[in-house]
Write a structure and sequence with these properties.
It is built from five helices and three strands, in the order αβαααββα. With 164 residues, the chain is mainly α. The protein has a three-stranded mixed β-sheet, with helices on both faces. The chain is globular.
Amino acid sequence: MSSFMHMLGTVDPRDLNMERGYRRWTAYARSKSANLLFIHELSRRLRATNARLVAAAAHPGYASTNLQTAAPKMEGRRAAKRFMEIGNRYFAQSPDQGALPTLYAATAPDVRQNDFFGPPLQGIWHGSPVRATRAKWTRSDTAGRGLWAASERLTGVRYEALAN
């Protein structure tokens, strides 16, 4: 699962946990960029093993969820919370519509390795799922290998069948 916000944050392999200057929206953007980069590397590894499994990603577009209002609420910023509630009410699509790209990526017969789906940008991230635009750095083989290695190191999990 990713977000169009991935466009605002690259993966910093020297500071994956953002221990040097944490900012919530930067962390969110970086994590969504990392999700796409990880899918890229997983897809590359699946292709190398001729696996029938497909790794794809999706983003919900602008869906009316608590993502936009949770932080202002926790911080007691009433005006910001109200502003986001208005945005959700008048500009966002429903959570059900936001789930469609994920369902499409998981079930549609035309999904290919490393695809990324979301609602169309022209509709301001509303509507039926289409192949979505993604940042160039989320397709870097070198960065993908690095993120994979860091993930193995940080989690202690290694998938021998996908090692290469």
